[in-house]
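Ticket #4471: structure export looks truncated?
Reporter: QA, pipeline team
Priority: medium

Steps to reproduce: submit the single chain below to the structure queue and open the exported record.
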Amino acid sequence: QVQVVEFGGGLVRPGGSLRLTCKYSGNVFAVYDVNWYRQIPGREREWFATSSINGDTKLGDSVRGRFLLSRDHTKNTVDLEMHNLKPEDTAIYYCNPQALSPTNSGPKMIGSWGQGTQVTVSS
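Actual output as written to the record:
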């Protein structure tokens, strides 16, 4: 299984920027997609971005044009650059790597979660 840590959250004013980092490690064959989710208290966790192993990225409508993903395979990190932040971006942000992992019954794709990092956009 993959161990996951997200960091870089904090308080930022509307229109400001933040960079979050997802760092993952573990005894796996490969990490394929690295997804980003966010969760507002009282609401379901919402997907908004994916970084694929081949370099492709996919962004949800709510963040496209404002958020950017970059991935460093040598450091096992995915950075999320967030620009023009809005109060509605306030949430706990989670990273979710999907890794081909060794199991007793053979290799399996397993998703892991970090503890999340809080992003607050407020004046």
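Status: closed, not a bug. The export was complete when the record was re-opened. Leaving a note from the reviewer for reference: The mean pLDDT is 96.
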